[in-house]
Every structure is written in structure tokens, then in C-alpha cells.
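Ticket #4471: structure export looks truncated?
Reporter: QA, pipeline team
Priority: medium

Steps to reproduce: submit the single chain below to the structure queue and open the exported record.
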Amino acid sequence: MPRIYIHPLPVRIWHWINALGFVALILTGIQIRYADRLGLVSFRNAVHLHNWIGFVLVANFFIWFLFYVFSDKIRVYHPELSPMKHFRGSLRQLQYYGYGIFRGDPNPHHVSAYHKFNPLQSTTYQIIMLLVVPLQFFTGLMLWDLERFSAAVEFFGGVRVVDTVHVLCFIFFVGFIFIHPYLSSLARPPSAHFKAMLTGYEEVEEEPGQGDAGRIDTPP
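Actual output as written to the record:
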């Protein structure tokens, strides 16, 4: 099948550090929340691990952010589409996920180096990376040192409010950890997205009449 180089090495490194880090944060967070029921590690060690992994992921986030801002890859998240085209593309993608995929219909989105996300993915990932992730980090930072950030904690309604927001983000990411691999397996072949995040190359369905013209074996 034709292959397209869509994941540069920095993106792949960021992705796997982020994935492993969030899994570790979820596990240590559960240990902290249910210290009286779980005994995987001590409460003190769980807190230390949670904090240090959090700082690593904050640094990793800024690496991701700077890479996309200061390179032409920013177009991956902001395709040159009008709002109406983006809306129509989102509807077509919803129809595909809703019933088209079960009938064997082709995916309306065709992957390319600068258009690897369909409209739904583009919107979803922007919300996650520019809103939910920073919110998780910000609330976690305030909970890390309540005395130092006491003014900010009080401004946002107190410890209970900050902790509730942090836990709600935690619940969201727990769901995302399960949903993300499932959606990734909907590719044809199902392993295409997983292989791509390891090698950088993604196998894509060959369009009728495309032949060998669509094969791209080298990084752009």
C-alpha cells in the first residue's frame, strides 16, 4: 500500500512520552485518591512520583507547543479550510463513524502530510491540547503547593473547586486512554495508525487510478 510520512521524529517522541506519562499519572492519582484501599506504593511515594511525572509532562507539552508553533507543521491542526467546509467535513465524518464504517464505506478523509487529522480530530485535539491539558496542569500545579499558590486557589473558588476540576480532567483522560486506541484501530488496515506512530510512515488506502503515483517513501 502507498505510504506517507506524517509523523516526524519529535512528534513520535513527544507522543510516547505523553502516553506513558499520562498512564503513570492516572495510576499514581488513583493511588493517592484511594490510599486506604490500594497498596501499590506508599502514599508519600505516590505523591512524589505524581508530582515529578507531572513536571516532565509540562516540559513535554511546551516542547510539543514550540515545535508546532515554530515549524510549518502547525497547519496540521489548522488546515486551510473555511468554517463551512470544516462543518461539512465534520458532518461527513460523523456519518462515516455513525454507520458508514459498518457498511464498508471508504473514509471521507484522505491523509496527507499536512492534513493528517480529519475535521473532527482537528477540533477535538485542539480542545484537548489547548484547553483540557493546560487546565489539568494548572490545577495540578496549584494543588502541588497550596501555600505558594494560595492566592490563585482562592481566586478560583478554593481547594475544593480546584481539586474537583483536576479530578474531572482526570476522569476525561481515563476515558480518552480507552477510546483513543479503539478509534486508532478503525484504520484500514487496523494496525496502520499504530505502526505510523512508531515508524512515522502510515499506510493509506490507494484511491482508484492512483497507482504508484501516491507512494511517498521519504520524509517531506
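Status: closed, not a bug. The export was complete when the record was re-opened. Leaving a note from the reviewer for reference: Residues 208-220 have pLDDT under 50 and may be disordered.
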